[in-house]
Amino acid sequence: MALHITGEQAADELLSDDAFALLTGMLLDQQVTMESAFAGPEKIRSRIGAIDPETIAGYDSEAFVEVFRQTPAVHRFPGSMAGRVQALAAAVVGDWGGEASAIWTLGAPSGAEVLTRLKALPGFGEQKAKIFLALLGKQCGVEAPGWREAAGAYGDEGAFRSVADIVDPESLARVRATKQAAKAAAKGTG
Question: 10 Å Cβ neighbour count for 172?
């Protein structure tokens, strides 16, 4: 798999090669652009020399917030998001033996089971878990039976609803347009 989410080669390569980096990017994807969120793991790795769950979970929490604050910032809310990333890392270490991909591979789970596992992670609610499941299925080759149904509308073929559908600049533009239309409709202005 070769992801093309951030527009930055090093960041996209990290997301493509490291399951915890991809999971972290999804966690960071709130109240910032998708590109910025998914570039966050590469910023962390370049600043502390690692992106593995054990290192992140064991990192001094105050120092980790400072890692997030360095320019360019990892996230616009460095304190809360640094804490969430550390909580996610601790969960991956404690519940999954430090191997993020075990969440979607251990025991050959169904799509519904992967969704349940994702929703149990710190910072992953229903919507975020469904989007990430769709990303795993559409772009990462995860073949958990029933993943499309478990991902709901995010699993639909040919949809441009989320990061799961971004494969190039054109698809990014289509996802942005879909999101803007949904926001306008929610506000009653579209």
Answer: 21
| 85 Cβ contact partners less than 8 Å away, ≥ 6 residues apart | 24, 27, 28, 44, 56, 64
**CA neighbours closer than 13 Å in the CB half-sphere of residue 22:** 29
Which residue type, as a one-letter code, is found at position 19? A
Contact 23, 117 (CB under 8 A): no
pLDDT of residue 59: 98
Rounded to two decimals, what is the model's pTM?
0.94
Encoding tokens for residue 153?
């509308």
**SS3 state of residue 89:** helix
pLDDT of amino acid 190 = 52
Q: Encode pLDDT of 4-16 as tens digits.
A: 999 899 999 999 9
How far apart CA 155 and CA 43 sit, in angstroms, is 29
